[in-house]
Design goal:
Elements (H helix, E strand, L loop, with lengths): L1 E4 L2 E8 L4 E5 L10 H7 L4 E5 L17 H14 L5 E6 L1 H12 L4 E7 L10 H17 L5 H12 L2 H4 L3 H11 L15 E5 L7 H10 L4 E5 L6 H4 L1 H13 L2
Helix pairs in contact: 2-3, 4-5
Length: 252
């Protein structure tokens, strides 16, 4: 299925009947990233999974790039357009960034909130990362003095950018930079949904300390840690995740 929100084509899947549950995927993912969870939920409720702009089969954000707040506004409009107000949200990684801003700013749109491998907190760079950042900033400043500086800055970005950054097309790099540089800590105390946080013990992308901080700072939040699971804990421990999700979403 397809809908246009904020001038951007959005592809989504929807199935089942009953209460509404919205699945929000991580960076580089798509609706299909939730496939086993989606098929499980379609037997219990009406489940909707979208491709965020710039992912899957959806269109691209504007050339100037989107921030997390832009994605949250997009998701709010998507919820209203499909009549999903008050839906429960299950989100992974980047989808959690969007959910944090959305649930803090527009709580009336969100019911229950399950965040797994939740991103949104800034990692403290180690010595090697700080040295690399300093070198990059110094070289980028030097490029301003050279006649072909713009081309050199692009080459520097390709050389010093992260693996995720280098893998992106040019028109998504501005969005990526905006997203990863946002620290959403200030939004945590404003979330009223009393979310359930699910983290993998071996997650290196969003380490467990992030989940522990979110549990402390979000009112009423709970934290479940899955052993022998990484950033995709919902797939690494699918059976356990489905049991936890069902208990949280459907049992009183």
């Amino acid at each position: 299925m397809e809908i246009t929100i904020k001038g951007v084509k959005c592809r989504y899947e929807q199935a089942g009947e009953g209460k509404n549950v919205l699945l929000l995927h991580g960076w580089g993912g798509e609706a299909a990233s939730w496939l086993p969870v989606y098929h499980h939920l379609r037997e219990k409720c009406r489940v909707t999974a979208l491709d965020f702009p710039g992912h899957g089969r959806s269109g691209l954000p504007p050339e100037e790039g989107w921030s997390v707040h832009d994605y949250a506004d997009f998701t709010a409009d998507f919820i209203r357009a499909l009549g999903l107000e008050g839906c429960d949200i299950v989100a992974h990684s980047f989808g959690c960034r969007v959910s944090i801003v959305l649930s803090a700013q527009q709580p009336e749109l969100v019911g229950k909130l399950l965040l797994t491998g939740a991103a949104g907190l800034r990692k403290k760079p180690g010595p090697a990362a700080r040295l690399r950042q300093g070198l990059y900033k110094g070289l980028k400043a030097c490029c301003r003095l050279l006649p072909n500086g713009q081309a050199l800055r692009k080459r520097l970005a390709d050389r010093f950018g992260s693996r995720d950054y280098r893998a992106l097309p040019e028109n998504m790099r501005r969005t990526f930079v905006k997203v990863v540089n946002e620290d959403l800590s200030a939004y945590l105390p404003r979330i009223k949904a009393q979310p359930l946080l699910v983290f993998g013990r071996q997650d290196t992308e969003t380490p467990l300390w992030m989940g522990q901080k979110m549990e402390r700072e979000i009112p009423g939040a709970g934290l479940v840690v899955l052993e022998n699971a990484g950033h995709f804990a919902y797939l690494d421990k699918l059976y356990d995740f489905l049991r936890i999700m069902d208990a949280y979403l459907f049992e009183t």
